[in-house]
Amino acid sequence: MRDNSGVGPGRPRQQSIATADPFEEKWDGRPYWTGFQVERMLFDDRTRHQHLTIFDNPVFGRVVALDGFVQTTERDGFIYNEMLAHPAILAHGNVRRVLIIGGGGGGMLREVVKHRSIESIVQVEIDAAVVEMCRKYLPAVCGDAFDDPRATLVIADGLDFVERTDERFDVIIVDSPDPIGPAAVLFNRRFYTACRRRLAAGGVLVTQSGFPFTDGERLGEALALFRSLFADSAYYLAAVPSYPTGSIAFGWASDDSAVRRRPLAVLERRFRAAAIATHHYTPEVHLAAFALPPWFSEAIAADSSET
Prior knowledge:
Blueprint lengths: L25 E2 L2 E2 L8 E7 L4 E7 L3 E6 L2 E5 L3 H16 L4 E6 L4 H6 L7 E6 L2 H10 L1 H4 L8 E5 L2 H7 L4 E7 L13 H10 E12 L5 H14 L2 E8 L7 E8 L2 H4 L3 H11 L8 H7 L4 H7 L7
Parallel strand pairs: 7-8, 7-10, 8-9, 10-11
Antiparallel strand pairs: 1-2, 3-4, 4-5, 5-6, 11-13, 12-13
C-alpha cells in the first residue's frame, strides 16, 4: 500500500494533540483493547448494516472501524492486505480468477490487481456505504483499484453469493470483519462448504481468522472445520500493530497440499516474474509465516489436533 498521506512505514505524522475522547474497542460493552486517540472524526454513523467509524489518529493515520472494531489503518494496513493476498496467489502460480469476500476498504483489491496475469476479480461486499466512504476518505488505501477493468464489485451477502454463483475461482480471499453483525455467516461450515464448491482444481481459500491470544478456541474450531472439508489446511501469522495483541492469524485451505509447500526458489522466481511492489511481503516472509510458535498450537489445541 502506497500511503499518499505521508503515513506509512517509518515515522508517524506530527499533528496537534487531540482533545476528543479516545476510540476504544469493546466486547460485550467492556474495553477490549487500548484506546486510539481521535484527532479528527470524519464519519461516525450507522449504515444499513453496521456502525462505520472513520477518524484520524496521530500514530496510525486514518483509521476505519466497523461496529467498534478497527479494520484497517493507513499506516499498517498494508501488512494485512499483502499477507492475505500474495501468499495464495504466488503459491498457486497460475491464478486467473479471484473472488474477494468483504474488503470494502479496497486495500485487498489493490494488492490483487497488482498481479497482471489475473484476468478477473469479483469482489462481494455487503455494505455499499463502506466502499463509498473508504473511497472518499481513504484514497491512500484503495488507490484506483475499484476502477480496474478486471474487477467487478458486487454489493451482496457473501454467503448468498457463493451459494448461488456457478463460477469457479483459483483463489478465494475472505477479507471479513470479526464474526459479529453481518460477517457472522462467514465463519461457519455452511459458508466454507460453499467456498469449497466454488474453488477450481488446485484452488486456495484464505481467510481472516482472528487474534491468536484472544481467539484460540474459535481458531481451533475453525481449523477442525477446515480439516473436515479440505485435504490440506493450516494457519499462518502476521504482526499488525493496530490489531489486538499485535498479531493476526490467517486460515489456509486447499485440496492440493503441494500448493502450501512450494519451495523458496519457486516463490522467488514467481515473485520476480510478477514484478509487484510490496512493503512487507517477500518469499522469505511467506515461508516464515507458516512456522508457528508453540504457544499458538497450545492456544488452539482444545479444539483441534496438530499434525
